[in-house]
């Protein structure tokens, strides 16, 4: 192999090695290394009792009866009485008209116990559309 070609190959290999090293380093810092503990949303709720955490949920998604909530919403949404088949996306069971629910800002509704369990496991977005309903930093 001519010396010029050998030098070019060595230069390319060294350059590729440096590029791969930088790429792996960036991936480690961005995706693999854990966040600082004070940035963790779980740490915002972890120090509180269950009742305190549920009161935080009640501020952003108060409990109500499905029948009462639906009476106020169907006019806003211009829907009919026939649009009353609600299913909880967490447990996949139908929601009875007399059931206690939490309604989110995105107008998705869930059984009260289902959303409370969801929230207490540090899920702060709607299970259906993933819209944030609670800001742990606020």
UniProtKB/TrEMBL annotation:
Alphabetically ordered keywords of this record: Membrane, Metal-binding, Transmembrane, Transmembrane helix, Zinc, Zinc-finger
Pfam families: zf-RING_2
Matches recorded under InterPro entries: Znf_RING, Znf_RING/FYVE/PHD
Biological processes annotated in GO: protein ubiquitination
Gene3D superfamilies cross-referenced by the UniProt entry: Zinc/RING finger domain, C3HC4 (zinc finger)
GO molecular function: ubiquitin protein ligase activity; zinc ion binding
Name of protein: RING-type domain-containing protein
